[in-house]
Design a protein that fits this description.
Helix content is 39%, strand content 16%. The protein is an alpha/beta fold. It comes from Phytohabitans suffuscus.
Length: 256
């Protein structure tokens, strides 16, 4: 009898494709991928090459095209830009942004934030401390100072977890850092935003400006810039809801 069932019924869901932000890799999503797996939600964490913007776009397109079925494409921080670039793939039924950049092809970040009244000192898209902690090496790649990264990205994590994450950060090409999409699929497809209210890297005013115009859920976590590291179970809970609704929406559209 239905009333006596103790096991959870299977839920139709989309595959979640996860995109990291600057200096990171797919490793940062591993705790969330494990949490989603326990919930029965398939997920793939992509590692971008960070050799140049075009290579990053190509790598993500290949990853999305390798997934069977409907995709929920989720980007964190700078990963939001590449989600905008690849979100036009037919398999992508919903876009997701976690304290992430969202722009139109015909606007700069500064233009977008200025039009939405964000304070001048934040119009580069992040707290000025982030830019101050970045430097270009002789190889032309951009790095971030480890000490600053710890306080900016992982302020709500245990010291040992901060050290583990910071040790895996890597340089990023200037092209990857400044590349911009040529489309705005978030205007045509459902797109949801997860705000991180304790984010020291991308303040709430900036997140709110990025999220303006999205047609999707707006969820919030009292978390740092890296909730995938400090609160992976909570992030997985949000993504599980998004993925289930993504699949339902795609099925409805296919039946019409």
């Amino acid at each position: 009898m239905d009333s006596l069932r103790t096991r959870r019924d299977p839920v139709v869901t989309a595959t979640v494709v996860l995109v990291h932000g600057a200096f990171h890799g797919g490793w940062c999503w591993e705790p969330v991928v494990r949490a989603l797996d326990r919930r029965g939600v398939p997920a793939v964490a992509v590692t971008l090459p960070y050799s140049c913007w075009q290579d990053d776009v190509r790598a993500l397109r290949d990853a999305v095209r390798s997934v069977r079925g409907t995709v929920l494409l989720v980007g964190h921080s700078l990963g939001g830009a590449i989600v905008c670039a690849v979100g036009d793939e037919p398999a992508v039924a919903r876009l997701g942004f976690v304290s992430a950049l969202v722009v139109d092809p015909d606007e700069t970040v500064r233009d977008r934030l200025a039009r939405r009244g964000v304070a001048e000192h934040l119009r580069d898209g992040a707290d000025p401390a982030v830019r101050a902690a970045m430097s270009a090496g002789d190889d032309g790649n951009v790095r971030i100072a480890p000490g600053a990264a710890g306080s900016l990205f992982y302020s709500d994590c245990r010291p040992e977890e901060v050290a583990r994450a910071v040790s895996r950060l890597r340089p990023i090409s200037a092209s990857s850092l400044t590349g911009r999409p040529t489309a705005a699929p978030w205007r045509d497809k459902p797109a949801s935003y997860l705000f991180c209210t304790e984010d020291r890297a991308v303040p709430m005013d900036v997140q709110e400006a990025y999220a303006e115009g999205l047609r999707g859920h707006r969820d919030r976590l009292d978390a740092s810039h890296s909730p995938f590291w400090s609160r992976p179970s909570d992030v997985a809970g949000v993504l599980e809801r998004w993925a289930a609704e993504t699949a339902e929406t795609a099925e409805t559209a296919a039946a019409e």
